[in-house]
Write a structure and sequence with these properties.
The complex is a heterodimer.
Chain A lengths: L1 H32 L9 H41 L13 H6 L3 H32 L5 H9 L6 H11 L12 H8 L13 H27 L3 H9 L4 H12 L1 H17 L2 H6 L9 H10 L5 H32 L1
Helix pairs in contact in A: 1-2, 4-5, 4-8, 4-11, 5-8, 6-8, 8-11, 9-10, 11-14, 13-14
Chain B lengths: L1 H11 L11 H28 L3 H6 L9 E8 L7 E3 L2 E7 L7 E7 L13 E3 L5 E4 L4 E6 L10 E8 L6 H8 L3 H32 L5 H13 L3 H18 L6 H25 L3 H9 L4 H12 L1 H17 L2 H7 L8 H11 L4 H21 L1 H12 L2
Classes of the chains: A mainly alpha, B alpha+beta.
């Protein structure tokens, strides 16, 4: 074990050292071989060398990052698309048959349905709660403590959160005392405790609660910062005009921070599309809770793995993300122009 | 209208606005926020409290009752005749129903399971095997008989015990050793530390180039980085898995190695790192850069001596992000490191425990707490940087 830790630390040191040697070394080589400090050089030669170095240097700075991103992100996107048209081992071209399979497969269709439900409920609820907490906390003296506590689940892994909530949803026989909070409350109000995790529809909602619990803190932090950017004068003016707290909130605050609300909403949307740990840990897709990300993971290993089908599912997830990706790039480009 | 907004400016610059008689709105805000905070912290508190409870109590009572004592119907078998001692020609069998430190006390007892409340502590019952038994509240009993005991089978004593709240670290000891959490903790560290540190330097150089060097294609690269921020990891897994297997087959080595996962996490962290750092570096004052350039400093020198130290807050933000993300990751670890006993990280272990020990909440709660304690420490001690990073990464 000690050996393992030492190995990790040594690798880290080697990695950092290698990166440093690369950056420093290539930079030195560039200046050494295309340097223009030699006073004997003619003026046009100096300008030519200067220009060459200025043209090469950015690529030296960028090269390792570009290499990593090409191998681990760009190439796989193309390869996944390619694999989605091939059989389970990737050996044979099968045309669109993986896609045709997908749209006839009950668990795929169920996943699409569940994903839509997640997309409708989770980003909206988490953003709404985040906004509510941000507005309330900014008015109260203990607001920062409250924000810290509501933010805390952000640090917890999806699997850890699943354990926490599975305990909340725990069910112990119909007549025994319940140790899960949810069933205990239901029992206290005279209801019948149930194994909620296996009750279709409601179990999906209960899984969503976990993600909402985690993402609300994120929404809160971003929206709280945006709310602080709303000029105090406009709020005060509305107050003097006799607008109540709720009207000020909906008529003045929300429109002013709407772009930020949109950013938060889209960010959570992407998280929803990618999250699979919660489903894997809680139900593994049983009892009608399957979602695309977990189905993809499932097909990746099921029966030795089906590269074609799981690639197809990955492409479907990617297509769902694509509009947001385009929107993000456009925003970034617009910003670039104003810079 | 104009007059009013002038008033507003006057208020905001010093004077306090007139206070209203009863601020119902404020009270509602206090209550509403308190409700939300309780709702949000209750599940985690439950986990922590449960992980410290005695496992027998944990299984039968809700954690919110942890501070109350619970009642349990229990049964004990008394000793056989050979345990008797003779004192002044009276025969005794003495003993205690409870282990020392079990936190139990007797509420009532009886000789049949249907007669649990036949007697109170201190009362005496006559036994079918002869003699009389007296049971005290602390569980000690004295079974007295004028004639020698001859029974060959210890009779049973039924009782209701009050179990006082008990907190223990036993669950942690068990999960660290038998549950394999200890091993996984080390594995998680092994994965996380290099995967957090290595991308920083690589990203910082790239970010500097994108922020302060002009070259053709810069806009394109920025756009690609922004696009890659949201590309689902699912898109990368299968080709990379095939690639790793291919390399392993070709070199005759392993396909699931720490090196493999370090490189994967490095690459997956780069888009966010470059994006965050570039935004931060682009905000550094242009004058400083330009005067340094005029003084003849090279880009390399400006970067290492000025930009890198100035960017510390952004570097810290990213480091925290990457640390939390890698530590909490299950997907990449499962795919690139596998599920073997030797290399299972905390998230993978926890998932495995959920499957194999799904009802042993003492194992699950303590295991989960161990897995979340490191991120919680990082989070609470460095929250400022974390928040700053979130803001830089999202608000446009």
């Amino acid at each position: 074990m000690i050996e393992q830790i030492i190995n990790a630390l040594v690798t880290m040191a080697i990695g950092v050292l290698a990166a440093f040697v690369y950056f420093w070394g290539t930079n030195w080589l560039l200046d050494r071989f295309l340097g223009s400090d030699d006073p004997a050089l003619p003026a046009d030669q100096v300008t030519r060398l200067d220009r060459m170095r200025a043209r090469i240097r950015p690529w030296l700075f960028l090269a390792p990052a570009l290499l990593f991103m090409s191998v681990y992100l760009a190439y796989p996107v193309v390869a996944t698309l390619w694999l989605s048209f091939r059989d389970r081992t990737g050996a044979e071209f099968v045309g669109f048959s993986n896609y045709l399979w997908a749209f006839q497969d009950p668990s795929f269709l169920q996943s699409i349905g569940n994903n839509l439900l997640w997309l409708i409920i989770v980003p909206t609820t988490a953003t709404a709660f985040g906004l509510l907490v941000a507005v309330l906390a900014d008015r109260l003296w203990w607001g920062n403590i409250a924000k810290s506590l509501i933010f805390m689940p952000m640090a917890i892994s999806f699997v850890g959160a699943s354990v926490i909530w599975k305990f909340v949803y725990d069910f112990r026989g119909p007549d025994s005392p319940q140790i899960g909070v949810l069933n205990a409350i239901i029992q206290a109000f005279g209801g019948t405790p149930q194994a909620w995790i296996s009750v279709p529809f409601w179990n999906s909602i209960l899984l969503m609660v976990i993600l909402i619990w985690i993402q609300t803190g994120f929404a809160m932090v971003i929206l709280s910062a945006a709310l602080r950017g709303v000029p105090e004068e406009t709020l005060e003016a509305a107050r003097i005009d006799g607008a109540g707290g709720i009207r000020i909130f909906f008529d003045i605050m929300v429109p002013q921070i709407f772009p930020t609300i949109l950013v938060v909403w889209t960010t959570i949307t992407i998280t929803v599309l990618k999250v699979f740990d919660i489903i894997l840990a809680m139900t593994n897709g049983q009892w009608d809770t399957q979602v695309l990300a977990n189905l993809m993971f499932d097909w990746m290993f099921r029966g030795g793995g089906d590269n074609g089908r799981s690639s197809t599912i990955a492409i479907v997830i990617m297509l769902a993300v694509l509009p947001i990706m385009v929107w993000n790039i456009r925003n970034a480009n617009a910003e670039e122009v104003t810079r | 209208m104009v007059q009013k907004s002038v008033d507003a400016v006057a208020y905001s610059s010093g004077d306090t606005p007139p206070s209203r008689p009863v601020e119902w709105g404020r009270i509602a805000a206090h209550l509403g926020l308190a409700f939300l905070v309780i709702l949000w912290t209750f599940p985690t508190v439950g986990l922590l409290v449960s992980s410290l409870r005695d496992k027998d109590q944990l299984a039968v009572t809700g954690w919110w009752t942890a501070l109350m004592s619970s009642q349990r119907n229990e049964v004990a078998r008394l000793a056989k005749a050979d345990a008797q001692v003779e004192e002044n020609s009276v025969f005794h069998i003495r003993g205690n129903l409870f282990e020392p430190g079990s936190g139990r006390s007797v509420i009532s007892f009886g000789l049949r399971s249907t007669q649990l409340d036949a007697a109170r502590p201190g009362d005496t019952l006559s036994m079918r095997a002869g003699g009389m038994i007296t049971l005290e509240q602390d569980g000690s009993f004295d079974w007295v008989s004028p004639t020698p005991f001859t029974h060959t089978r210890g009779p049973r004593l039924f009782y209701v015990a009050a179990i006082s709240p008990q907190f223990t670290f036993d669950n942690y000891v068990e999960v660290i050793n038998a549950g394999g959490i200890g091993r996984s903790f080390v594995n998680s560290f092994t994965v996380t530390v290099p995967a957090t540190v290595i991308p920083i330097l690589i990203a910082a150089f790239a970010a500097y180039a994108l922020a302060w060097m002009s070259f053709p294609g810069r806009g394109w690269i920025v756009a690609v980085v922004v696009g890659m921020l949201v590309v689902p990891l699912q898109m990368s897994l299968i080709p990379l898995l095939r690639m790793y297997n291919g390399i392993a087959g070709w070199t005759g080595g392993e396909s699931k190695t720490y090196l493999g996962i370090w490189l994967a996490h490095t690459a997956f962290g780069l888009p966010l790192a470059i994006y965050l750092l570039r935004n931060y570096m682009a905000g550094l004052p242009r004058e400083i850069m330009e005067s340094a350039r005029i003084d003849g400093a090279s880009h390399f020198k400006i970067f290492t001596t000025m930009v890198l130290p100035l960017s510390f807050p952004a570097l810290a933000s990213f480091a925290i992000f990457q640390f939390l993300w890698v530590w909490n990751d299950l997907l990449v670890a499962t795919v690139f490191l596998g599920n073997s006993e030797k290399t299972l990280v905390l998230t993978g272990r926890l998932r495995e425990l959920l499957g194999s020990r799904g009802d042993n909440w003492e194992i699950l709660t303590s295991g989960a707490f161990i897995s979340i304690v490191v991120p919680l420490i990082v989070f609470f001690s460095l929250q400022r940087y974390f928040v700053r990073g979130l803001l830089a990464g999202s608000v446009k």
